UniProtKB/TrEMBL annotation:
HAMAP family: ATP_synth_a_bact. The lineage of its organism: Bacteria, Pseudomonadati, Pseudomonadota, Gammaproteobacteria, Vibrionales. It comes from Vibrio aerogenes CECT 7868. This is ATP synthase subunit a. Belongs to the ATPase A chain family. Keywords: ATP synthesis, Cell inner membrane, Cell membrane, CF(0), Hydrogen ion transport, Ion transport, Membrane, Transmembrane, Transmembrane helix, Transport. NCBIfam families: ATP_synt_6_or_A (TIGR01131), PRK05815.1-1 (NF004477). InterPro entries: ATP_syn_F0_a_bact/chloroplast, ATP_synth_F0_asu, ATP_synth_F0_asu_AS, F0_ATP_A_sf. It is a multi-pass membrane protein. GO terms for cellular component: plasma membrane; proton-transporting ATP synthase complex. The gene is atpB. It comes from the Bacteria.
Length: 260
């Protein structure tokens, strides 16, 4: 039986149900509505929180929320200064946005497995996955946005000719190796967004699956013995994955901004 206590649902059905998206459409053109809505709401909530703190900021005796936000901003700003070698007014705000947004999406994994799906079921929504970063479409979409910025900075700093030379004359600086260089550099360039998106997806999907397995395989009265220690450890994973996504984005944009 499932951990939710539904006598008519087997463990396999329970796990499959929790791994099913609320989607619209079929095949490639299907849209995971739950991932889209939750990620947009989290992004809007983060923007509202930061704007509220900025409007109410005080230099006298700052409140706890202001201190917390300032600590995050200073931490990210220091990381950007250490990693990004160029000069750009976009990188620091982008890094703060990525870190905060990805962290909030990851944080949804700590909500009890059945809480939001059960609440959604009461209003007629039968499927709901609440961790947007456990959806490969979300993570690869964010990575695709980073890839567009990589191309933008590469063309802006190096120019079309310089960027073409980087792809065709490295690592072997000879015209005879142009095809080999193009393959090697092309694979390296494409692998950046792919690895960026899949790394976040893989870690968060694994964490979500473990919570579902605990809820689906153990009786409700014993689940806390595994779910609580895993949740405490998962807090580190949640923060670390947001930090890694942010740092790799800065590193890739720094590499794209370097003149050769």
């Amino acid at each position: 039986m499932s951990g939710s206590g539904e006598a008519t649902q087997t463990t396999q059905e329970y796990i499959a149900h929790h791994l099913t998206f609320l989607s619209s459409g079929d095949g490639f053109w299907s849209i995971n509505i739950d991932s889209m809505v939750i990620s947009v709401l989290l992004g809007a909530g983060m923007l509202w929180l930061f704007s509220r703190v900025a409007k109410n900021a005080s230099s006298d005796v700052p409140g706890k929320l202001q201190c917390f936000v300032e600590m995050i901003v200073e931490f990210v700003d220091g990381t950007v200064k250490d990693v990004f070698s160029g000069k750009s007014a976009l990188i620091a705000p982008l890094a703060i946005t990525i870190f905060g947004w990805v962290f909030l999406m990851n944080l949804m994994d700590l909500i009890p497995v059945d809480f939001l799906p059960h609440a959604a079921g009461l209003i007629g929504i039968h499927y709901l996955r609440v961790v947007p970063s456990a959806d490969v479409n979300i993570t690869l979409s964010m990575a695709l946005g980073v890839f567009v910025l990589i191309l933008y900075y590469s063309f802006k700093i190096k120019g079309p000719i310089g960027f073409a030379k980087e792809l065709t004359l490295q690592p072997f600086n000879h015209w005879a190796f142009i095809p080999i260089n193009l393959i090697l550099e092309g694979v390296t360039l494409v692998s950046k967004p792919v690895s960026l998106g899949l790394r976040l997806f893989g870690n968060m999907y694994a964490g979500e699956l473990i919570f579902i397995l605990i809820a689906g395989l153990l009786p409700w009265w014993s689940q806390w013995m595994l779910s609580v220690p895993w949740a405490i450890f998962h807090i580190l994973i949640i923060t670390l994955q947001a930090f890694i996504f942010m740092v790799l984005t800065i590193v890739y944009l720094s590499q794209a901004s370097e003149e050769h």
